[in-house]
Amino acid sequence: MSRIERYEAPDEALASLPGDPAAHEEPALARKPRFQPGLLTSWLFLLLMAGWALAPGLFAFHDPLAGIPAQKLRPPSIEHLFGTDQLGRDLYARVVHGAALSLQATALAVAVGLAIGSAIGLLAGFVRGWVDVLTMRILDAMMAVPGLLTSLAVIVVLGFGTINVAIAVGISAVATFARIMRADVLRATTSPVIEAAVIMGAGRWHMLARHVIPHSLGSVVALAALEFASAILAVSALSFLGFGAAPPQPEWGSLIATGRNYMVVAPWLTVAPGLVIMLCMLSANRISQSMDRNLS
Q1: Where do the H-state alpha helices sit in the chain?
Q2: Where are the transmembrane segments (predicted)?
């Protein structure tokens, strides 16, 4: 047999080797699921937010852009659940329709950070050597700068707008995703099952796709849920500063920015969208904790 030819170990044999995390997992039937009302409430609230973002017309029947001057600054009531703003526009309708821009920007930001950061972390942890050293020094420099300042720098280059805000927030989260992915890849590549696969002659690409990536995604997926909460706050903060969609398009951050001028006479203009943002963050954090326990 030529020295170029190598034995490709069957997946079943590798999966049964000592040290394989899958071999020590507790059977799914032996686990006792517990009812967690907080987790269920978090999922239901985020599903409601998704409904607001995808089909706002099913949840709000007022026009978010048309106002009635005679009804300006009305307090919350049955007709106007969140009250009205300074132009007589229904605040509940504006918050519901604002979910489309705010949550779509948040989802895009998390997707950008997850895709780019995971690819960088996978490359650094699997290749190692000077690639790993250089990558880590760049990531250290990125993490030394606050995320909001990084986002502002990217916006200066790209310009204003909801899409640019999402890209900027996603780029600021790349370093966090990359470091977590690199750590999981390093742990996976030094496990006994990977060392056994190398001894048996498993190819690098086969080993990467079959063993390294599946055992490195748990923490990154849980981090994506956690970063979703941070991205909501970052997107809203940049919108509050005026870098998001142009008026009169509603965004959660811009709604708070407008309502701060009427804090004394109409506090609901800031309280209502602020509570929605806070509940979204708390729900995403709760789901992230659950995912971290189940996937890690």
Answers
A1: 11-15, 37-54, 91-127, 129-144, 147-158, 162-172, 174-189, 192-199, 204-207, 218-240, 252-259, 268-295
A2: 39-61, 105-127, 148-173, 185-205, 217-245, 265-284
Residue 123 corresponds to which amino acid? L
Structurally, the chain folds into a number of domains equal to 1
The amino acid that residue 140 corresponds to is D
Cα–Cα distance, 151 to 106 (Å, whole number): 13
Rg of the chain on CA atoms, in Å: 24
Total count of residues recorded for the chain? 296
* DSSP letter assigned to residue 211: I
pLDDT at position 110, please? 93
Among residues 112, 130, 106, which one has the least CA distance to residue 176? 112
State the residue range of the domain holding 289: 81-295
User: 172 and 152 in contact (C-beta within 8 Å)?
Assistant: no
Dihedral (Cα; 235, 237, 240, 241), 10-degree rounding:
-110
Q: Please name the amino acid found at residue 110.
A: V
Give the CATH number, domain containing residue 126. Answer: 1.10.3720.10
**Amino acid symbol at 8:** E
**218: CB partners within 8 A, 6+ apart:** 184, 295, 296
Residue 33 pLDDT: 59
